[in-house]
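quick one, two chains, predict together pls
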Amino acid sequence: MAKQDRAIRTRQSILEAAAVVFDERGYDAATITEILARAEVTKGALYFHFASKEELALAVIDAQMPDTVQPAAPTSSSKMQELVDMGMIFAHRLLDDALLRGSVRLTLDHGSTNLNRSSPFHGWTELHTRILTEGKERGEVLPHVVPADTAELIVGAYAGINTMSQAVSNRVDLERRATVLYEHLMPSIAVPSVLARLDMAPGRGARALAEVERMRKSALDASEADEAEELGAAPAGVA
Amino acid sequence: MAKQDRAIRTRQSILEAAAVVFDERGYDAATITEILARAEVTKGALYFHFASKEELALAVIDAQMPDTVQPAAPTSSSKMQELVDMGMIFAHRLLDDALLRGSVRLTLDHGSTNLNRSSPFHGWTELHTRILTEGKERGEVLPHVVPADTAELIVGAYAGINTMSQAVSNRVDLERRATVLYEHLMPSIAVPSVLARLDMAPGRGARALAEVERMRKSALDASEADEAEELGAAPAGVA
């Protein structure tokens, strides 16, 4: 168990070191030697987890996708707020999350190599399509909206303001740009009563992320309580 | 005169060859040798026009900006139609204009080198800001719109759908994506009476480009007529 924990931690530090090197140098110029030096692990440890620079880059790219540990947005009163929160949290995390920064750099940087960068585009598009479809079922979305088309637009447009923010301000102004994006798009997506209640202001990213943390903590507490209960109930359960 | 014409043609074929090589290989991997082979010019001719690979890349990047020969959009009944036309024409031209394709590839591809790619972002943002400001003066634009913010959003979002279209379909679906973009954004920008008259449908790019060509041709005819008149008037003008 402790050994497995250590392996997970080692894998994570390799990923984070690789993300920093990819972010600074780009995929082509990054070297395994530099990643090893930064991660402070042995060559053997790195190749135990990742067979090649390409595999490492693909793992860094995948790390931007939300999972059960780090959901994309807090559960909210409206699906449309969840949609906005995904982008606002992303902009906020990008300021100081090295793994996310490396992932974004690799995704938006179509260099000379044939690294497959399309998975985050597909992943985010699917996620947006699902939320828009659920929002539509709940009557939050205007009737003309085609969830898949609008999802692709949001993901593509967001990638663009990200690229531009990178070029102009090293991403410092991304959250303000995300606010401008949602203020322009949401009136064409959400019904007025939902639109009027949306929080799309700068600062929403930090607030929503704090909610995600609270959700995660209380889910963790609940599962620990369940576990304790199960342990307590076990003797009775033994036939 | 003929010599100058030849120099302009040579410069143009070098630019086009370079654009194709940059589009296929990216900036870092592209070589002067490959560009020379494709342009079928001598090394001397190339270095007469461009001092370095960087200077060549910057000239290719700049080639996407509209000029007097190739304006961004036809003069239209509304400034908002001009705004839409800029993007629809761009998407249409990108299908078969090698110079534009190379320029876009270099602009959106922030590789490991320090090539300055920001000039098209600034150039397009200025152009959009000017048209939005003129539209506002004419009462075509909703009161809350801040021209500079909305301009940056459109340019950034457009760059993103371009990147995504490149990744997913080698840019074949860019015009459809541009339509979806404008259909979502324009209701937050244009007043309803202008909005109702906008043509944002796929195919608009080709139609608008044909109008630009007609404009250019009639301007050319007019200037030739002026010239002929001047020539005819010359003897009388000699004191």
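Chain A has two domains: 2-62, 79-219.
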